[in-house]
Every structure is written in structure tokens, then in C-alpha cells.
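Handout, section B. The chain below has 69 residues.
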Amino acid sequence: MLSGAEVCAILTAQGFREVRRKGSHIVMQIQVEGGTRTVVVPDHREVAIGTLASIARQAGIGREPFETP
């Protein structure tokens, strides 16, 4: 399992940047052609597998960067 901080680090490596924190959630954004893509990451010790899949889908980067060796 990945933590919220680890998920944010992966998203940062993919070009996302943190724009704000609200409560226990971190909002990450990236500029894409035609607009902005926004992903909300829970700042938890362990991000649930379903939530992680949803983050990957919303980010449009696939699940591969989130798979741990």
C-alpha cells in the first residue's frame, strides 16, 4: 500500500503540482491541452486500492507508476 505522500510524489514525477491542502486531502493539478486536470489525494497512511485506481484513472497516467516492486 502507498501513503498519500507517496502518491503525491509519484504524481509530482508525472508533472503534477500541489495547489492546495484542505483538511486531510491534497489537491494536485497539471496543465493539459485544453485545460487543467485535477486530482484529489487523501493524505492518509495507506490509500485504499480502489481510491488509488480512481486517482490513476483521473490522472490519466495508468496504474503502472503506482505499482510497487
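Note. The chain has a mean pLDDT of 92. Compare this with the example in section A.
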